[in-house]
Amino acid sequence: MAAAAAAAAVGGSQSPQAELPAPGLALDKAATAAHLKAALSRPDNRAGAEELQALLERVLSAERPLAAAADGEEAAAAGGGGGPGAAEEEALEWCKCLLAGGGGYDEFCAAVRAYDPAALCGLVWTANFVAYRCRTCGISPCMSLCAECFHQGDHTGHDFNMFRSQAGGACDCGDSNVMRESGFCKRHQIKSSSNIPCVPKDLLMMSEFVLPRFIFCLIQYLREGYNEPAADVPSEKDLNKVLQLLEPQISFLEDLTKMGGAMRSVLTQVLTNQQNYKDLTSGLGENACAKKSHEKYLIALKSSGLTYPEDKLVYGIQEPSAGTSTLAVQGFAGATGTLGQLDSSDEEDQDGSQGLGKRKRVKLSSNTKDQSIMDVLKHKSFLEELLFWTIKYEFPQKMVTFLLNMLPDQEYKVAFTKTFVQHYAFIMKTLKKSHESDTMSNRIVHISVQLFSNEELARQVTEECQLLDIMVTVLLYMMESCLIKSELQDEENSLHVVVNCGEALLKNNTYWPLVSDFINILSHQSVAKRFLEDHGLLVTWMNFVSFFQGMNLNKRELNEHVEFESQTYYAAFAAELEACAQPMWGLLSHCKVRETQEYTRNVVRYCLEALQDWFDAINFVDEPAPNQVTFHLPLHRYYAMFLSKAVKCQELDLDSVLPDQEMLMKLMIHPLQIQASLAEIHSNMWVRNGLQIKGQAMTYVQSHFCNSMIDPDIYLLQVCASRLDPDYFISSVFERFKVVDLLTMASQHQNTVLDAEHERSMLEGALTFLVILLSLRLHLGMSDDEILRAEMVAQLCMNDRTHSSLLDLIPENPNPKSGIIPGSYSFESVLSAVADFKAPVFEPGGSMQQGMYTPKAEVWDQEFDPVMVILRTVYRRDVQSAMDRYTAFLKQSGKFPGNPWPPYKKRTPLHPSYKGLMRLLHCKTLHIVLFTLLYKILMDHQNLSEHVLCMVLYLIELGLENSAEEESDEEASVCGPERCHDSWFPGSNLVSNMRHFINYVRVRVPETAPEVKRDSPASTSSDSLGSLQSSRRPKVLQRENSGTAQVFSLVAERRKKFQEIINRSSSEANQVVRPKTSNKWSAPGSAPQLTTAILEIKESILSLLIKLHHKLSGKQNSYYPAWLDDIEILIQPEIPKYSHGDGITAVERILLKAALQSRMNKRIIEEICRKVTPPVPPKKVTAAEKKTLDKEERRQKARERQQKLLAEFASRQKSFMETAMDVDSPENDIPMEITAAEPQISEAVYDCVICGQSGPSSEDRPTGLVVLLQASSVLGQCRDNIEPKKLPITEEEQIYPWDTCAAVHDVRLSLLQRYFKDSSCLLAVSIGWEGGVYVQTCGHTLHIDCHKSYMESLRNDQVLQGFSVDKGEFTCPLCRQFANSVLPCYPGSNVENNLWQRPSNKNIQDLIKEVEELQGRPGAFPVSISSETNLSKEMESVMKDIKNTTQKKYRDYSKTPGSPDNDFLFMYSVARTNLELELIHRGGNLCSGGASTAGKRSCLNQLFHVLALHMRLYSIDSEYNPWRKLTQLVEEVNSQLGNEEQQPEVPILYHDVTSLLLIQILMMPQPLRKDHFTCIVKVLFTLLYTQALVALSVKCSEEDRSAWKHTGALKKNTCDAEKSHEVLLSFVISELSKGKLYHEEGTQECAMVSPIAWSSESMEKYLQDFCLPFLRITSLLQHHLFGEDLPSCQEEEEFSVLSSCLGLLPTFYQTEHPFISASCLDWPVPAFDIISQWCFEINGFTERHAEQGKALLIQESRWKLPHLLQLPENYNTIFQYYHRKTCSVCTKVPKDPAVCLVCGTFVCLKGLCCKQQSYCECVLHSQNCGAGTGIFLLINASVIIIIRGHRFCLWGSVYLDAHGEEDRDLRRGKPLYICKERYKVLEQQWISHTFDHINKRWGPHYNGL
Hints:
By secondary structure, the chain is an alpha+beta fold. It contains 75 helices and 28 strands. A hairpin with a 2-residue loop joins β24 (1839-1844) and β25. The longest helix is centred in the middle third of the chain and has 32 residues, at 1191-1222.
């Protein structure tokens, strides 16, 4: 087949005759290579070259894996000779041999590496790699370092973080263009190129010959493998196949790049050499295969919508000429509608929406741009074609890595960058079509960020390859493919087009790689300057921005709720931020100085042109269309931001860049529309549009968007307001907010555009907007630091914040490259100035707190700024929260007790350019509004709130603060008739207008209004301030329309003004005669008739304020001018007394300021106060007015009521809890006086928490305790040395579990089972160290039948519970604690009645007999098991539960499965586990005494009953009963040893005494008598003591032994011999010496022997320590069984106190002389006899097994408390070791590595690789290590996860950063340090088994963790 013969005739001049004979193949490769190398080294090497060519020809053609079918259409995967088989391998082998020229390939690699001038690191990584970024060292913000370079460099104290790479990247270490040299690591600091020797010619000679053919071969594969995807079938599968086959080749190239600089430069030569490329690929030769391959290449080019210019017209991107664009027309037609018919390959682009596309898509004239940018590609080198295929195959990871690995080569870097730019348009087209656009985007950025972050390179490419033109054009083209007609304003005739946010291009953010490249290059000053100077580019860019102007239009739904809530707004906001705002911020960062004025002028000029075009396109005249809003006005925002920059940084004159008045009026319309819509949305007027509209309103002000959205909008409105007529502006505002009709003096009105329920909030909205507009100084004169401080204060006032959330909430410049770095110096310094750090606190059992910052007191006092808070809140509740916090501060600091109003804050002075803004406060329209509102509030009209009043007063105060210079009083009196052309106020200064009295007002009211009934007053004689008013009154009355100043006539006036300005009418705008009304909207006849009424008002703003003061304070004449008492106030007015307070304070403050500003006002205020004001006429309070009754007061009352209720509830609950808790509590038992004659027995009474009845537990209706049973291995984790176990963080530190308690007990049991009878072994030890069952209760009881019905109801309850009812889990109905079983309470007395506790005078011998008899009597229970009562059934079922709690492997230790001995062992071990755990909870000893310190109520008593009941089922044969061995001497000694073949029983000295105790007690009939208990303890103590002596004798050396043997023997006959440890010890030694226990000492034993000589004291201490664990457990048991208190004591006297408490010490014992443990002994039979009997058993055993005999002697058990592993201080230590560590099971690096904090095992979380029988590894490990409880640290998230049985929860993190916060998922990547307190809390919960109770968020893990 032709294809298989590869490119035989490729060599141009060479002919294909040089076929070597076939045996040539079999030649030794190395020899051939050496021969060729020699041939090529000759001066005349032509023959050698030909020979090599021929060889390569054959070798490489054999390598065709893609045996294409004859017609070349189908890429068959069959491959040449069995797929990627031997041929390929062979070819690679040949290449390696040839490169090495006959030597070994590895040696060759090493040789080449020696010549590597490694100045750059250049390590390339792919997604998910962990890298570092140091902002202190970075020049470019994209700088990143690999972990190795980072740790090798010195970055202490720098601002760095670790991050998980999203798109991949490369290490910049050594590249001084991107980072400062100080940050280089040790390896790359040396500029080593100087001392690297020159590369010898012959080393790389072969490479230069072989590599071009190799790369060409690769390209041929790529050509052949590519098939144009059919329109319907995505072709990823085929492409991936091809790529898989090529894997080894590309890897080979990648390895070559890693050989270092020398090899890279050879590769660069090969890749960029144009001649090579031409010779090999032109496809001109006669070889069919080569031709075919070339054809495929041309087809691929064509199908991509690109043309391949004929050779005669050599046209490359380097030398563009406009003439060629004709060539291009046949090309790129698909994606834009610009070029006629559609090309088949782009059909799929439009997802079948073709018809619609043609209709809706809009044609754009692209003739401005050179078409060739889009359509022409000419490849001149391998590199170019390789990139082409890389793109075509959608950037395969391997290829990308290869291309990037070459970047350290400077020559390559430039060539590659140019090639990349040349293919930019093609990249965009491929990206748009791609099905995997996400992955592809990441790969593109992976490459481009390496190229464009380098300023020098970016500049070069910009100059030589038109980089900016290409980028802007490509972006424009990209967006053109998804344009639709804009419906804003004039739907029919609009010519404007916007992007359609529903298209995939925007929805999936497909454009981001291109936009991010653009932002990246704009961060370089040299590139940005070119952009700002190029007018053509600016025009194109504004054209691009205008595509986003007005996108995602919202239309208000008026009738029914919208069916489908579109979520396109996400796409819209993201697009504006990324595609418009970020480039804008990038450009702004270069306009910082005066020299850059020209740039700003350019941008502003083209921006205004674009805006003008936009207004024309949407057909805008003067009114915005009602009920629609778009949040996207990027052109407005560009304009605003450049204006702001111009004034702030470039000292430009604002007026020189502002347009005319008409344009300003148009400019303000849409931003104002947004502000009004925000108020509408918050007033719920848009509810029918669904939640998404609220989402938009929130996003608009959210911290990441606000400074690109709402801030520029408000600034633009401020600019417009400062330049337009103030009356026009104010009336526009009220009209936009639809509250014009509300602003009437009449008590009733009709609003034709607003429902009554929305009026109040819209009025609040309008006033709030005005307050923000007039108070905000963000762009009007604040410095950057002041802004930062204001932002920070606002955020902290809403809530305490963590450091990271603050960083997130402070709007930073959204362009990451603008150089303002969050976390920079100023951020920290401002933070420390305004806030205090609250370290994280730990509420036990509460939530984990983070470190928080909270505002300092002086900030609340002086800097709290409600305006800023309102502007920055996303949720309205945050404003309330800030006010509540402010109130709390004032109460606490005693500054103000009541409910304060938001404080008035002085503002930064305005920049002179914006002084005009303050004219708004001094215009009549505003004064009329303020007057009207004050009047309405005073008269209690409806729909007014305290909030409205607050804002009105705020505006008045602002006006007083910002009035013109104080007017002279004379001027005020000379206001003659000519000034008084207005019926309301004489002038426009607020200070003088405040005192102006208004007598009558004519209003339009509905006929039903109360005002209509009144007659118009005949005269105005009631006016007492005659002198002032008389001159004016006549005029007022003469005028026909004396009072008709309805505010909505202002609307008419405003419209007129607008028309006039547009018509350029020269007449003075103010002189317009007003028509009566212009109620444009009212529908005829829809409302009651309006009639005109004249109201008598007779008030001025001042008098209204004073009356308001009376009204607010609720007293008449409450206002008394402060300056009458203290004239100082007028001279030095800054009085702190007024800075915080409520409305009354505000009114006083305003009146004081008014008086200060003018003497006239002062006089009038005094006059008004003198004249006793008649009270406001008392009116019947209507429902509506009741509403406005102080809301706060009502709230306060409600709060008090609630508090009272809560308190009552709490006390009730408390008393309930107390009664519930006192049940059955041993501590509260009242000792009963029992007379011998009449033993009263009180039954215990229980309360059922379900039905609430109390009563005893009976056989028919038993009561039970709510318990949680859980398997626990905590005990097994005790260790016997003090050295804490550390988490391994190097390969050396491994943890081996053989010193844990569980391991030791395991070994012991299996040793016993080897030598002794199984049933006897199972009585000699306890199990449950691992997987023991722990029982805990919350102390509440319930009837068992109630519980069953409760469970039934839970089962039917569909609510998703965090627990599984089928497994019997539930929560306690009372305290909601987690539980899974009910432990029946045994009917009978309240704590084994005192009757049983009376001391008896029987001697020990009698008691021993009684014990033995009782044990023998089967089932001596009041309840016989045979009769099936409810109680016995429950007892059985709970026993089943206990068994099922733990796994079978933790229950079955017997050699014969299912033997009863097993159950027997398991049951008494449950008791042991619970006692031991309680001991651990008490800290390992009983010194603290008292009740259980664990705070949990104990259920041991009930548990004992259940266990005892079941133990009695198994009776031990009396001859095997250990009790016999303890209390009787056995005569027939020999009989036992006789039968050798049977395994012997365990010698009694090998028995575990505590286990014996539990067996003895559980075998007794319950309730147990106290004297029996004591008897058992005494007998067992003798055994224990003997064990201690034996252990001691083994421990000491031979000499010590003989010495003791001797001294003891001397005292043997003294009276106290049985109670002297010396005598007993010597006897034990002499007895055991008969056996072989002490022999075998040998040398190795000596090491064990402690060198210390044993003194009598140290022996005594040893013996006590040996016996203590038993005494502690026994005392606990006694405490639970008989309810006796545990005495508290010092540690050193614990032994004596416990032994006397247990009754071991005789009562007459004197404590003067030092205490001796032996005095507690009370031998039941002569000591020496029984000891010798016990020793005899051991001697018998050691005869045969001396070693084991010694090992089995019970060693002194000094178990330390269990602990979790100790963690390192710094989290990075753990992370670096574990995140790349391979798993020992599957030997892969896990995706989610985790490590067990109990034992240090490394596991794969969720890894399917380590799954066994459907259990993932963490779940499996939690069962093996913790019997179902696992504590894992997730390495990649720094979080701890708890697995408990079938549930899991995220516990939180024990590593916090420097600001006391967790960093879950390591998103911020800041250094983390261990928080010891948290770790302690974790450990505490583990030990106390309280995970279930304390952590609330549990979920099922389905074995998938």
